[in-house]
Amino acid sequence: MKKTARTSSKKKVVSKISTVKKKSHGNKNVLIEAPIVSSYNDQIRPFFDTVERLRNLNVMREDILLPSILVVGGQSSGKSSVLESLAGISLPRG
Predict the structure, then answer these.
(1) How many domains is the chain built from?
(2) Which pTM was predicted?
(3) pLDDT digits (tens, 9 = 90+) for 15-60
(4) Residues 6 or more apart from 16 whose CB is under 8 A from it?
């Protein structure tokens, strides 16, 4: 992970540029994951796994609807905009 720092008169700003690279440890190459990959595996992947487990249990036979599209993200990260673009309609905000 590379760090660059800029100093202004009152505050210091540090931005992180993440990369995925391999490091050698003896005879093995170890993959170092960028934070986005780690975040996906820890926070987002469990949602997909849960939906898949429910599908495997055939819950749709009981008229339980499962999502076809799952959009995950923080507040103001563009989730509604992505869905509006896919569906071609305006969605309520709030």
Answers:
(1) 1
(2) 0.42
(3) 344 444 555 556 677 766 677 777 777 878 888 899 899 989 998 8
(4) 1, 2, 3, 35
